[in-house]
Amino acid sequence: MDTEARSLRKEISEKLKDETLRGALGRFAEVYPAARAKAYENAGDIETLREALRRMKSATVERIEEMADRFEAEATKRGVKVFRARTGDDLKAYLVALCKEKGVKRIVKSKSMAAEEVDLNPHLEAAGITATETDLGEWIVALAGQRPSHMVMPAIHLSRFQVAEYFSKELKEEIPPDIALMVQAARKELREKFLRADMGISGANFGIAENGAIGLVTNEGNARMATTLPRIHVAIMGYEKLIPTLRDAATILKVLPRSATAQLMTSYMTMIAGPTPVMVERDGKWVEEPGEMHVILLDNGRLKAARNDRFKEVFQCVRCASRLNVCPVYTLIGGHVYGHIYAGGIGAILTAILHGMKEFEKFHELCIGCRRCTEVCPGKIDIPGLIEELRIRNVREKGLPFVIRQVFENVISTRKLFHSLLRLAAVGQKPFQSGRLIRHLPLFLAGLAKDRSLPAIADRPLRDRVAKIQENISKPDKRVAFFSGCTIDFVFPETGESVFKVLQDLNMEVLFPEGQSCCGKPVIAMGDAETTRKIARDNVKALMEKDPDVIIAACPTCMETLQHYAELLKEDPEWSPRAERLAKKVREFCSFVAEEYQKRAVSRRPRGRRR
């Protein structure tokens, strides 16, 4: 992909019109949560397993170079040659030199995202070496001239009809769009490649420091053939794949297939500890000779991340791609748009670490911070939090565009001015308004309403309605401060009124702090941490002024942002304790109300019994 010439808006538009892609991704995303839950039914508590994996990987990264030393020593004892590649260029130079030394002309490759990361195949081709992908999905993607769109299912975005066209063109015969027949055609074509290959290249799901072995978790037999039939096997893996012991591999094997494809176990689980003997033809006879095995341990920015207190968290990733399966943005546009080499939210983080901020800047805004990925990630990586931290660092280094900076610093962070402008906008929108919607806008703003109807700003915000809907409850069960945020306050005040009614029905006194404003999510999402801190201090002051029992947010994004104030203000000795107290009181409206009704064991309380 020519990332220099990317037009993200155009790419998104094209993918949104791709019914094949959206259908395939949508269907998988729909069935995945239930399938994943079922796969974990007999594996023990999901959260216990996730925490065990997080602890193991977190402890490993603290000793990552020690792990690498031990792995190299143990692998060397078993006849493996280990090369530590500092960069992708080092890896490619080593591999080409090895091929030339050994007379390698034909390579078969099992799936390796690390090889994709360093753009290995074009480099091999330039050196006169033919490299054939043998993972079915990877082979299909290669025939299509594309990159994988999913870490585990590389060709998920393509239909069988499209695949049949690629097969027919490659094999120079008509291949019908029948899956079984296409698999048979691929098997026939690739079998000859395996038998004639001089070298096999694989990735690795983990490398065990205790014994120098690598593990491959696959659903196709190609990985075993690529690692055993050729006389030379090269395994490429990043430092994050290192784990201390064989017992730790069992932890990964419990969560990886269940999280990746909702399987109890994949079709093949292969452990390789040393070179595989190979059969070679000598003087018309087949004889067994020792094979060769090389492991290339790739850094490419990983060790720098391992030494960073914040970004060492990426070492908890096991490349299961579960986060893609629940990401609402990925489900709509796929990994070719939402990614560089690695897709999705974790892909944005890895892109920044492995390829630099220039690539990260091109698609990081596609993360909307919904946090669905954090709920399924087996390594419990705070993906939205790490993306936010990268945005903050990027803004700290480069700053924001002038207009955006002025809006953030002088409008959104200044409540009275911001709210005054919203009130003016409620009047100014009249010529373009139809009911509660804006259907067209003038001049350069026309594109905003071209394909959608925008919600209009309400005539009267929620704060102007509170006096009429707020009830005086003499003996409330709880005192609740309602944080409306700017959207419920000024765009959907009726939602706010409903929140008041429900909470008051639960015999709660509902407070509406006048000093509250925007939660600051649009500002922190652009990386402006300093302005967000100002907004946070203002909201903490307003919400905690009357020391409520609970702070309710009806917008999940607002709730998550309010809870994040403690992290934002942790370096501020005056505001940090206050932000921490606030974070402990913040609750999301629906879950809070469900718990309260459950406690009362009734769906509603009769209004006459509340006082």
Chain-averaged pLDDT: 92
Judged by helices, strands and strand pairing, the structural class is: alpha/beta
Helix content bin: 40-55%
CATH architecture of the largest domain: 3-Layer(aba) Sandwich
How large is the share of residues in beta strands? 5-15%
Distance between the termini: 66 Å
Cα-based radius of gyration, to the nearest Å: 28 Å
List keywords for this structure.
13% strand; 4-stranded mixed β-sheet; 50% helix; Rossmann fold; 19 strands; 6-stranded parallel β-sheet; alpha/beta; single chain; 3 domains; Glutathione S-transferase Yfyf (Class Pi), Chain A, domain 2; 611 residues
What is this structure, in a nutshell?
By secondary structure, this protein is an alpha/beta fold. The protein is 50% helix and 13% strand.
What report would you give on this structure?
This protein is of the alpha/beta class. It has 3 domains: 52-298, Rossmann fold (3-Layer(aba) Sandwich), CATH 3.40.50.10420; 402-455, no CATH class; 462-609, Glutathione S-transferase Yfyf (Class Pi), Chain A, domain 2. 50% of the residues lie in helices and 13% in strands. The protein is built from 29 helices and 19 strands. It has a 6-stranded parallel sheet, with helices on both faces. It has a 4-stranded mixed sheet with strand order 8-5-6-9, sandwiched between helices. A hairpin with a 2-residue loop joins strand 10 (278-282) and strand 11. Helix 3 packs across helix 12, helix 9 (160-171) crosses helix 10 and helix 27 (556-568) packs antiparallel against helix 28. The longest helix has 21 residues, at 19-39. It is elongated. It starts with 7 loop residues before the first helix and ends in an 11-residue tail after the last helix. The model has no long low-confidence stretch (mean pLDDT 92).
